[in-house]
Design goal:
Layout: H1 2-24, H2 27-33, H3 42-45, E1 54-57, E2 60-64, E3 67-71, E4 78-82, E5 85-89, E6 91-95, E7 101-110, E8 116-124, E9 131-139, E10 145-153, E11 158-167, E12 172-173, E13 176-177, E14 182-192, E15 197-207, E16 210-221, E17 230-231, E18 235-239, E19 243-247, E20 250-255, E21 258-267, E22 273-281, E23 285-302, E24 311-331, E25 337-346, H4 351-354, E26 373-383, E27 387-398, E28 427-436, E29 446-457, E30 483-494, E31 497-498, E32 504-519, E33 531-545, E34 548-552, E35 555-568, E36 608-621, E37 624-635, E38 644-645, E39 654-655, E40 667-676, E41 679-687, E42 693-704, E43 708-717, E44 730-742, E45 745-754, E46 759-770, E47 774-783, E48 793-802, E49 806-807
Antiparallel strand pairs: 1-4, 2-3, 3-6, 4-5, 5-7, 6-7, 7-8, 8-9, 9-10, 10-11, 11-14, 12-13, 14-15, 15-16, 17-20, 18-19, 18-48, 19-21, 20-21, 21-22, 22-23, 23-24, 24-25, 25-26, 26-27, 27-28, 28-29, 29-30, 30-32, 31-32, 32-33, 33-35, 34-35, 35-36, 36-37, 37-40, 38-39, 40-41, 41-42, 42-43, ...
Length: about 800
């Protein structure tokens, strides 16, 4: 008999839960369920009935004492409104004296605040502070659903549900109810609105309806809560050095404007690493402080036996305190002023690689450290419509391997990886940048004034590309670093004329003066240790452009030839001036026509030059277009000062890393092509006079189906004419994509190939499941980048993102 009762009880639960799911999918609920807080009809929002009045719309209605009894004929439900509440159902009773109500059949109850409850049977008091529902169903703002066989509202803030199911996944499709991909089924669920939490007893987690995990107690924030304390989705992977690694983030919310993220990483082969993050939003700013700590030995690939064979993941050295800090803050204090800082340092130059620290290289603050370099800075910035000024000071820590040891796999004689010397990187204090332009026109044109000042200090001497090796003969070992201070002032005036036939003429005048103070110059240069230098440049010229537009039934065709003619005094590039800020130049469509085509001030162009180019654009329709630009610049004379010694040359041969040293610059070719809103591509290249590509990059992104996508990118630098371990040439191909093969199942791949070394530096291959409710991806990963100081790494990764519960990683939730 007991077994019969249990079977009947289980059958009743299944029937009631199925009824709740069916109720949630009924047509009358579709519009309301699609909204965060379903908006009832206008009568429920702005009730014009007098206090205590009741409005009833039914096929038949009557009154028995103080009780109104109403029925429908099945085609439509009874509608009742009283004191801002709306109740719908096939049969309905309402007590005029107490306000208590009961309803059966497709029940929908809407409170004045817009809260909606669905049920097959509902009984409630006058203010819905206490209620009982059968086949209860509701949906939250983020799409999560909560259903129960029975629901009891114990008080104004506590709801108790029996034999309930919670799921963040869709439970309906065009065919009706469906099994959610992820759900939690529990014997009892309590939704405490005061605690803003959902608490489960005897909870069973199901994936696709299949039970996978049981716990007698479980709780998570109410889905309406933006942030709440609790465990986030763990990060699981396998690495040869650390073994199985599990990171278990716990978010502790102090207030709406402050939280802590405590994320210990547990490893089977090495000691744990504790990661911490503190975030605080103030009235006028934000601070994010992130750090980590462990006490462990070094591990990585190392020649333990001295036979030249580097074994993987060897532990060596003593246990040490190892830590990192990655912090930044920004404050808008008064008026147009903004203050900020970044603090980025690590005790171990291999710590991020060994422990797979997430996103250690971020763009925060006024100045960014590039890949594998950390920057600590303080800065102040003031910006208005007509002016700008910034003042900053910073230092840099390098995690890059020393390129001088590239031919020995960046190792010294003992087999240890050799890193860049931080003393060779400058301390910058201060760096000032200012711009201002008057509100009115000057001589009918626009005047702009610019100023810049910087002081750089180095402990260790650096040759190329800061100081050209051919002017520093002899061994520079032991020399002090060259300190430099620069002040620059610049004025530019431009005026635009447009002729009746559309020719745009823009004459300009530009003047610039630089002052340098240098200290600790090498004695073998044959100059004083301390030098003061100055140089000037005066320019005048005109920009010309003539856009031509033709409209056709199939789209627009735009042709725009552009040209610039300028004359300057001959540039004065003193070899004693270190090249600190003009080592990199990117010639493209915009920079080709600038008077200052270098990224900084240390190199300057002069003489007469003529620059010409043409841009063609075709636009078929919204999201479909193609464009191409081709241009080149010509100078009256060569500029040999732009050339530098080839790092791998044994004869001191020079090369041009800028593309501007010859009288004719490199060709600039740039284009884009988007035949549809699902395919986008672009490319850019600089080509020297012989037709050889100096630098190029291209990318292609495509989407097909609903979620299939792929991206391809290519980048190459061939500016150094000689191959060798010290050159900066590179050639990479990067590919990433995902393809769904069957239903929600698919594969994901990603990889980077170093074509210069003919090796795949990074690769990932994984199997994924994604149904818009949760995404899980498991696969194999290998990291073999040259800069990875701990050697190649193989491992297995698991990435999990769950709707409502969040995903793997930092930064869960925002601050107010």
């Amino acid at each position: 008999m007991q077994g019969d009762r249990d079977r009947r009880s289980r059958a009743l639960r299944v029937r009631l839960l199925a009824g709740a799911a069916l109720l949630a999918c009924l047509p009358f609920a579709e519009e309301a369920l699609a909204q965060a807080q379903p908006v009832p009809d206008q009568s429920a929002v702005s009730d014009v009935l007098p206090q205590g009045a009741v409005y009833v719309d039914a096929d038949s209605a009557g009154r028995v004492g103080d009780t109104i009894v109403a029925q429908s004929n099945g085609a439509r439900r009874v509608y009742l409104r009283a004191d801002g509440h709306v109740l719908r159902g096939e049969n309905l009773t309402y007590d005029l004296s107490t306000g208590a109500a009961a309803a059966d059949g497709r029940v929908e109850a809407i409170a004045p605040d817009g809260t909606v409850v669905y049920a097959s049977h509902l009984e409630a008091d006058g203010e819905l502070k206490a209620a009982v529902a059968v086949d209860f169903a509701t949906r939250f703002s983020n799409g999560a659903s909560l259903m129960a066989a029975t629901a009891v509202r114990r008080s104004e803030r506590v709801n108790e549900l029996n034999y309930a199911v919670f799921t963040p996944c869709p439970i309906c499709d065009d065919k009706g109810p469906k099994t959610p991909s992820l759900s939690i089924q529990a014997e009892k669920v309590v939704q405490d609105e005061a605690l803003r939490a959902v608490i489960y007893r005897n909870a069973m987690f199901r994936i696709g309806g299949v039970p996978v995990f049981y716990t007698p107690f479980f709780a998570h924030p109410d889905p309406t809560v933006e942030r709440a304390s609790g465990f986030l989705v763990p990060i699981v992977n396998y690495d040869e050095g650390r073994g199985v690694s599990i990171e278990t983030p716990y978010l502790h919310v102090v207030s709406p404007s402050e939280d802590w993220l405590i994320s210990p990483q547990f490893n089977t082969r090495v000691s744990p690493l504790l990661n911490l993050q503190w975030r605080r939003r103030f009235v006028n700013g934000t601070i994010v402080a992130r750090g980590g700590y462990t006490y462990e030995r070094t591990f990585g690939d190392f020649d333990r036996d001295g036979d030249g064979d580097y074994e993987s993941n060897i532990r060596f050295g003593d246990k040490e305190h190892r830590s990192y800090v990655l912090s930044h803050g920004e404050f808008d204090l008064w008026g147009p002023w903004r203050l900020g800082f970044t603090a980025e340092r690590t005790s171990d130059k291999t710590l991020f690689d060994r422990y797979d620290i997430q996103n250690p290289y971020q763009d925060n603050g006024l100045y960014y450290g590039d890949r594998r370099r950390l920057i600590s800075q303080v800065y102040a910035e003031r910006q208005t419509d007509r002016s700008y000024i910034s003042i900053a000071a910073f230092s840099i820590q390098s995690l890059r391997l020393d390129n001088r040891f590239a031919d020995t796999d960046f190792r010294d004689a003992e087999g240890f990886k050799v890193f860049e010397n931080d003393g060779a990187l400058p301390i910058v204090a201060p760096l000032i940048d200012a711009r201002w332009e008057p509100s009115g026109l000057i001589g009918g044109g626009r005047l702009r004034l610019k100023g810049s000042a910087v002081s750089l200090y180095r402990d260790v001497f650096v040759g190329a590309p800061v100081l050209n090796p051919d002017i520093v003969p002899g061994d520079p070992t032991g020399l002090s670093g060259v300190d430099s201070r620069r002040i620059t002032g610049q004025a530019e005036w431009r005026r635009v004329f447009i002729t009746p036939n559309g020719l745009r003429i823009e004459p300009f005048v530009d003047g610039r003066v630089d002052f340098y103070a240098l200290s600790d110059l090498p004695p073998m240069m044959g100059v004083e240790s301390d030098e003061t230098l100055s140089r000037t440049r005066a320019s005048a010229g005109v920009d010309l452009s003539y856009p031509l537009v033709r409209r056709t039934p199939r789209g627009d065709i735009i042709l725009e030839p552009v040209a610039q003619l300028s004359v300057s005094n001959k540039s004065d590039i003193d070899p004693r001036i270190p090249n600190e800020d003009s080592q990199v130049i990117e010639l493209d469509e915009s920079s080709l026509f600038r008077m200052d085509r270098f990224s900084g001030y240390d190199l300057v162009e002069g003489g007469a030059r003529f620059t010409a180019g043409a841009r063609a654009t075709i636009r078929w329709s919204e999201g479909r277009s193609a464009s191409l630009f081709v241009g080149r610049s010509y100078r009256a004379d060569d500029e040999d000062a732009f050339r530098t010694t080839i790092p791998d040359s044994t004869t001191g041969a020079l090369y041009d890393p800028t593309g501007l040293a010859s009288s004719a610059s490199d060709w600039v070719v740039q284009g884009s092509f988007s035949p549809s809103d699902r395919i986008r591509s672009w490319g850019h290249a600089t080509v020297d006079g012989s037709g050889d590509i100096r630098r190029a990059e291209a990318a292609l992104d495509g989407r097909w189906g609903r979620r299939n996508l792929a991206s391809f990118s290519y980048i190459v630098d061939r500016s150094n004419p000689l191959s060798g371990p010290l050159n900066r040439n590179y050639e990479f191909v990067q590919l990433a994509g995902q393809q769904f093969v069957y239903g929600h199942w698919g594969v994901a791949v990603a990889g980077i190939a170093d074509l210069e070394r003919n090796v795949i530096t990074r690769q990932e291959v994984g199997l994924l499941f994604d149904d818009d409710c949760f995404r899980v991806e498991i696969g194999y990963r290998r990291d073999n980048t040259r800069v990875r100081a701990s050697g190649p790494s193989d491992g297995v990764y698991l990435r999990l993102n769950l709707a409502t519960f969040g995903g793997s990683g930092y930064g869960q939730g925002g601050l107010r």
